[in-house]
Amino acid sequence: MSAEGTGVDLRIEGLRAGYGGAEILHGIDLEVPAGSVAALVGANGAGKSTLLAAVLGTVPRTAGRVLLGGEPLPAGVRAATSRGIAIVPEGRRVFARRTVRDNLLVGAWGRRDRAGVRADLESTYARFPALERRGGQPAGALSGGEAQMLAIGMALMSRPRVLLLDEPSLGLAPVVVDAVLAEVRALADDGMTVLLVEQVVRKALRVADRGHVLRLGEIVVEGAAADLVDDVAVTQAYLGR
C-alpha cells in the first residue's frame, strides 16, 4: 500500500447525530489522511451509514463538526458536493434506462469545463474498461459488479476530493467484491481520499490504511488496518464474528 498523505482531507470531531430526537452517533472522532483509505466497519445498526449521512448533512448534526481540508463543512448535500465530496450510496443507484455513457455524464452535471469532462470520461473508461465496451448500452443491462463500477465512475466524474463509499460489496459475489475493492485501493494510490463503509470486514481492512470499528454509534477500536485485519479478539468482541 502507498504511504498516507501528509495532510488530513476529512476530519470529524465530536460528531453527534440522529433522527427525530434519537441520537445514533455519540461523539465520533475520525480522520482520513489525504490519499488514503479509511475503513469504517461494524455490524448492522452500528451507525455506519448514518455517519456518512451526517457528513453530508442529510441527517441532522446535533454537536461536533466536519472539516474538509481544515475548513468547517456546512451541512447539506450542495455544500458537500461543491466543496469536493462525492458519495456512492448503498444499492448501486444508476439510471437504468439511460446508457452507461449518459450515466457518467450525469455524474459531471454542473461542470462547465467540457474538455475536462471529456478527459475524465476517457480516464474513467481506462479505469473501468467494461464501461467503455458497454458505453452505449442501458445501465440496467449491467451486471452487479459493472453497475457498482458505474456508480463509482459517476462519482469520479464530479472530480471529488473525498469519496464516500457505502457498502460497495452489497449483493456481489466474493470475486467481484475483490475486484471492486481493488479499484478502491487503486483510487487511493492515485491520490483519492476514501472513507469506505463496509460489513465485509477482512476484505475492507486489507485494502485500507486505517480501520475504525463502530459499535452502537461509538468508535470502539481503531488503528492501522494491517494490525486489525487478523485481530480475532477485536472481531469477536465488537463485530460478533
Automatic annotation (TrEMBL):
<keyword id="KW-0067">ATP-binding</keyword>
<dbReference type="GO" id="GO:0005524">
    <property type="term" value="F:ATP binding"/>
</dbReference>
<keyword id="KW-0029">Amino-acid transport</keyword>
<dbReference type="Pfam" id="PF00005">
    <property type="entry name" value="ABC_tran"/>
</dbReference>
<dbReference type="InterPro" id="IPR027417">
    <property type="entry name" value="P-loop_NTPase"/>
</dbReference>
<feature type="domain" description="ABC transporter">
    <location>
        <begin position="10"/>
        <end position="241"/>
    </location>
</feature>
<dbReference type="InterPro" id="IPR003593">
    <property type="entry name" value="AAA+_ATPase"/>
</dbReference>
<dbReference type="InterPro" id="IPR017871">
    <property type="entry name" value="ABC_transporter-like_CS"/>
</dbReference>
<dbReference type="InterPro" id="IPR003439">
    <property type="entry name" value="ABC_transporter-like_ATP-bd"/>
</dbReference>
<comment type="similarity">
    <text>Belongs to the ABC transporter superfamily.</text>
</comment>
<dbReference type="InterPro" id="IPR052156">
    <property type="entry name" value="BCAA_Transport_ATP-bd_LivF"/>
</dbReference>
<keyword id="KW-0813">Transport</keyword>
<protein>
    <submittedName>
        <fullName>ABC transporter ATP-binding protein</fullName>
    </submittedName>
</protein>
<keyword id="KW-0547">Nucleotide-binding</keyword>
